[in-house]
Amino acid sequence: MTTAMHLSSQLAVNVLDARSLLSAFGVLGVGVVLFAETGLLIGFFLPGDSLLFTAGLLCTGTAGSGLKLSLAPLLVAAAVGALAGSQCGYLLGRRAGGALLARSRSARLHEGARRAEELLERYGYAKAIVLARFVPVVRTVLNPMAGALRVPVRTFTVWQVTGGLGWSLGLTLAGYALGSSVPNVDRYLLPMVAVIVGLSLIPVASEVYRSRRDAKAKEARG
């Protein structure tokens, strides 16, 4: 009876809510969600940013939810899920090309693909692969796009590992640091998640600003 109730609670999980996912699947769920979000086009809607931040927060035991995660296994699961997912997405892109994306009817997914291609063309492989990690949806579609566009395997792997570790470990440790230093942090969880996600977009915004500034400078000299 107890097993049946537990299974029922897992089946009722809200995949768009970080707390619901963590309550149902714990640390293992973090790895699986990040793999799906970064490696499978169907995972573009998953809450990677808020999941990482909330999971880090729950490692402190101060959230008042009764759920406490272990930091070391969480960091491992987050890194493995993010890196393995990205590499899987790249390999799928190399084999299937744009066929997988073409089958999707999601306007949001196609918009993400357009932005991913723009990143690759504007900033080059290294910057684009790293920056894409911090942009929802784009981090899902850039990996198969990179594979379809035949970005060299070594180049893709080096920079997806760099960006993947910065994103997955950075957001997790940010949640842990705030949870350890702010009393009753649970009351401010939603605003803090919004702030963290906003901060994660700063590198992208900075690159966009720099690119436009350089373009204007070239026009002025011309």
Automatic annotation (TrEMBL):
It is found in: Cell membrane. InterPro entries: DedA-like, VTT_dom. Residues 46-176 form the VTT domain. The chain crosses the membrane at residues 21-46, 71-93, 156-176, 188-209. One of its GO terms (cellular component) is plasma membrane. Keywords: Cell membrane, Membrane, Transmembrane, Transmembrane helix. It is a multi-pass membrane protein. Belongs to the DedA family. PANTHER family: INNER MEMBRANE PROTEIN DEDA-RELATED, TRANSMEMBRANE PROTEIN. This is DedA family protein.
